Amino acid sequence: MSEHLGRGAPAALPPALRASLGPIAVLAAAAAAALGGLYAGHGGPGRVDRWVQPMAEGVRPPWWNVADALDFLGEPVGAAMSVLAAVAACLLLRRPRAAVLVVVGSGATVATTTLLKPLTGRTIHGGYLSYPSGHTAFLSALALMVALLAAGRLGLGRAAGTALVLAASLTAGAAMGWAQVVTGAHYPTDTLGGWCTALVVTPATAWLVDRIADDGRWRRR
Predict the structure, then answer these.
(1) Under a CB-based contact definition with an 8 Å cutoff, are residues 156 and 132 in contact?
(2) Cα–Cα distance list, 7 to 12, 24, 101, 105, 137 (Å)
(3) Cβ contacts of residue 40 below 8 Å, gap of 6+?
(4) Is the distance from CB of 182 to CB of 56 less than 8 angstroms?
(5) CA-wise closest residue to 190 among 131, 137, 135, 140
(6) Which of 44, 160, 186, 190 has the greatest count of CB atoms below 10 A from its CB?
(7) Is the C-alpha dihedral spanning 142, 146, 151, 152 positive or negative?
(8) How far is CA 131 from CA 39, 93, 115, 202, in A?
(9) Alpha-carbon distance 22 to 6, whole Å?
(10) DSSP-H helix ranges across 6-95
(11) For helices 63-72 and 158-182, what crossing angle results, to 10°?
(12) Integer CA distances (angstroms), 175 to 43, 101, 135, 140, in order
């Protein structure tokens, strides 16, 4: 397996995107930290939340069912199914590093949000830790990883590849964020923090996967 990940294997993080996703990750980390600091220890909505939340209140079927279905994708069973489907697609396309990234990146994203929640201490519904949204971070990260695969396979340049990656993660993050607010699981700013977390963790994990695979290749020579 290590041989397949090394010599000749397409990069998990396309070289054309490394220069652009690095600064984006730094900005996302700063935004996530700023939001976390702003709402640390809070047990209620902030000003932005109070402005956005009414737009999602009172949602009825069939849209509530759509929100519930999206929420399922962030639950353990739904997330596992999504990851397995993405891994299968990567392997069918002969992108082993992308397959590793999907597994490791998903786990790293969920682990990061899990660790950040008690550090931030923001709560919803009287005691449930809420910042950042793990569901939003997971789906944003998964979409971002699939977009990285597509950008690499299509040979997209820096501008087009970056646009694709950002559009995919933003679309997935907005959809899951909407679902989290509709179902009452998170404040809107929690979901923004989740999206920012995905923008930080995913490129860093992709770079690490490539670095480990390339180092292993040179050690074998």
Answers:
(1) no
(2) 13, 29, 17, 22, 32
(3) 120, 121, 122
(4) yes
(5) 131
(6) 190
(7) positive
(8) 8, 36, 10, 18
(9) 23
(10) 15-39, 47-56, 63-72, 76-92
(11) 110
(12) 24, 23, 11, 9
- Classify burial at 139, counting beta carbons within 10 Å of its beta carbon; exposed 0-12, middle 13-18, buried 19 or more: buried
* Residue-wise DSSP of 112-144: HHHHHHHHH--EETTTEE-SS-HHHHHHHHHHH
CA distance 183 to 156: 37
Q: Is the separation of the CB atoms in 169 and 31 below 8 Å?
A: no
Alpha carbon separation from 77 to 68, 175, 198 (Å, rounded): 14, 19, 20
pLDDT per residue rounded down to tens, the chain (221 residues): 445 565 568 999 999 999 999 999 999 999 999 999 999 999 999 999 999 988 887 889 999 999 999 999 999 999 999 999 999 999 999 999 999 999 999 999 999 999 999 999 999 998 999 999 999 999 999 999 999 999 999 999 999 999 999 999 999 999 999 999 999 999 999 999 999 999 999 999 999 999 999 986 544 44
Phi-psi region of 46 (alpha: psi -120 to 50; beta: other; left: phi over 0): beta
Q: Side chain identity at 142, as an amino acid letter?
A: L
